[in-house]
Amino acid sequence: MVKPTRWGIIGLGKIAEKFANDLIKVPNTSLHAVASTSSERAQDFAQKFQVPYHYDSYEAIFKTPDLDVIYIATPHTSHAENAILCLKNKMPVLCEKPFAMNLKQVEQMVTIARENDTFLMEAMWTRFLPVIMKTQELIAEDRIGKVKTIHADFGFVAPFTPERRTLNPSLGGGALLDIGIYPAYLSLLLLGYPTDVHALSTFGQTGVDETTSFIFKYPQATALMNATFASRTRTEALIYGDKGYIHLPERFHESKTLTLFETDKEPVTFSFDRETRGYNFEIEEVNNCLRNNKKESVKMPLSMSVKLMSLLDEIRQKAGIFYDGID
């Protein structure tokens, strides 16, 4: 019989609620404890999801009996601090993306995880979706030949709420870190780290990047990416090879389908229906890692998070995106 994995959540905003809705649908998994800096929010969240333990401070959650792992869903600027707090208490961590605000913070998190022999993984949930796994499989089978170009975008019109994370520079707001990370990661996953990076941004009223566009150069390929809070884009991805291409439709980072276009053949669509948003796949990955006493995921290793943050740092530097007290 499989021992249930008991989860805790630190930070109880919208993303935490989406995550919790998926978590309670995963077999042999329970939401065991939640923590917020607001006692009212902690109590309301616990009541909604029938959570046995709730706290009005993050430090208090470590008092919870039989807690196995914590999901960190706080604003970007708090990720490193919150993850390190958990790791120093030898509590396994799934930390929401972006892993931290810069490479220095990520490297510190990785070092402390290894010093404490404790599991740590970035919550790049897209990585574990069946549609992404199928994309990799089709490329490995040479169905589209060698990948030559990737086009991917992510855009929506963000409401002007400057106090909220999306547009708030003090909370790590901006299009690149919030949504640009998805096309950046897709290219990194499929093509590796680029040899050259070009990036441009436009900035909104609050000072965060409203739109960031970037191009990656590889020895024999390119990737063209865009992230914006200023307009609704098709939010799709196209992976072009020399023998065909793969289309991930709107919204590609959570898509349930993909279509394969091979030269001189009829298109083939692969569907992967689900009753969740898709967070369940990363939850299952963490559960399996913990049950097998692994300290990091093979599919989303810490080395990948280091590369991803290195890439985001390079894009920010090229585009002139800076955060007070971070850079």
Characterization of the model:
With 327 residues, the chain is an alpha/beta fold. The chain folds into two domains: 5-126, Rossmann fold, CATH 3.40.50; 130-277, Dihydrodipicolinate Reductase, domain 2, CATH 3.30.360. It has helices at residues 14-23, 39-49, 79-88, 103-115, 130-140, 175-191, 279-291, 302-319; strands at 5-10, 29-35, 53-55, 69-72, 93-96, 120-123, 147-155, 196-203, 209-218, 221-228, 237-241, 244-248, 257-262, 268-271. Strand 11 and strand 12 form a beta hairpin. It is globular. The model has no long low-confidence stretch (mean pLDDT 97).
Profile the largest sheet: 8 strands, mixed
Question: What is the radius of gyration computed over CA atoms, rounded to a whole number of angstroms?
Answer: 20 Å
| Contiguous helical run count | 8
* Shape designation: globular
CATH homology superfamily name of the largest domain: Dihydrodipicolinate Reductase, domain 2
Distance between the termini: 49 Å
Describe the structure in brief.
With 327 residues, the protein is of the alpha/beta class. The chain has eight helices and 14 strands.
How is the secondary structure organized here?
Layout: E1 5-10, H1 14-23, E2 29-35, H2 39-49, E3 53-55, E4 69-72, H3 79-88, E5 93-96, H4 103-115, E6 120-123, H5 130-140, E7 147-155, H6 175-191, E8 196-203, E9 209-218, E10 221-228, E11 237-241, E12 244-248, E13 257-262, E14 268-271, H7 279-291, H8 302-319
Parallel strand pairs: 1-2, 1-4, 2-3, 4-5, 5-6, 7-10
Antiparallel strand pairs: 7-11, 8-9, 9-10, 11-12, 12-13, 13-14
